[in-house]
Amino acid sequence: MTTGTTETQSGVKAAILETAPPRPALVRRHSVNVGDRVYPIVLRLLALLVPLMLLAVAAQLAVGAWPALKRFGPAFMWTSTWDPVAEVYGAAPMIFGTVVSSLLGLVIAVPLALGAAIFLTEFAPRWLRQPVGFLIELLAAVPSVVYGLWGVFVLIPFLRTVAVPPLKALFGWTPFFSGVFYGNSMLAGGVILAIMIVPYIAAVSREVLLAVPASQREAAMGLGATRWEAVWSAVLPYGRAGIIGAIMLGFGRALGETMAVTLVIGNRHDLGASLLQPAYTMAAAIANEFSEATTPMYLSALFAVGLVLFIVTVTVNALARVLVWRVARGAAVGSKAL
User: Fold this and answer.
1) Which of 24, 123, 185, 218 lies at a C-alpha separation of 20 to 30 Å from 9?
2) Whole-prediction pTM
3) What is the 3-state secondary structure (H, E, C) of the chain?
């Protein structure tokens, strides 16, 4: 009986082995292994394209700017003469206007953005956080030229009739608010930049504050601190590097802004301390004069301006990313966003 049963089971197993082909499983395992090998290689190649594109842009700018840099040397950075007829170029007013307008934008934008980030992460009721955060970030989606048109038809008349007269009455004795205000000015450019960089600083600062461990808040409040004292003494110091990185990101965004600033800053190639006078920026100069560059040296001078702007912007943004990474590394701050 036992021998018959064993023979029957052996026959069934043999039939199963004969009808079940082993090849597809081996082929499937082999195809999966090929995909696992090809996939990371493709990802590495795609990731390398980004720094290669950055290097390609830098190389093209350097090649185009070389004739002007060779002729004018380092003096190109601090001389103010820009005369296409005489083929004499100096980018000091553009560099000055770019830096000052961006710093002015930071002075206005940082309190607004940081206050909004602290409110949304620490004090706002939960039902209010999502709508307010969405509206602030929506400012980043508005096209630059729309900001420029709004600045021409709304901001400049407001500054001319409402904001500037009391500023001149209070600070007109200083060189920063001297002269006649016609509208297009460094002040208008700084205000436009402030509005444009608020969502960037607020969004990154918010993520940095969300990355601060809850134990920091609890420890401060356990020692008797109020909610605001806990934020001021425990939360902000912990995320200081990331907040500075957010501010620098906004600074880098302001440095490269073109159309909005071009429409409101006045585009005058001149150095002046007054915020009420027209000024010029590197991005605005490239946008305005690139189509008019009819000589090789004129074109090379604009390439040199672009190279300076490229180096400054990339450096500022790289430092900002490093500072933000120091706070948020290892923490999925995006998963905690509201």
Assistant:
1) 24
2) 0.80
3) CHHHHHHHHHHHHHHHHHHCCCHHHHHHHHHHHHHHHHHHHHHHHHHHHHHHHHHHHHHHHHHHHHHHHHHHHHHHHCCCCEECCCCEECCHHHHHHHHHHHHHHHHHHHHHHHHHHHHHHHHCCHHHHHHHHHHHHHHHHCCHHHHHHHHHHHHHHHHHHHHHHHHHHHHCCCHHHCCCCCCCCHHHHHHHHHHHHHHHHHHHHHHHHHCCCHHHHHHHHHCCCCHHHHHHHHHHHHCHHHHHHHHHHHHHHHHCCCHHHHHHCECCCCCCCCCCCCECCHHHHHHHHHHHCCCHHHHHHHHHHHHHHHHHHHHHHHHHHHHHHHHHCCCCHHHHCC
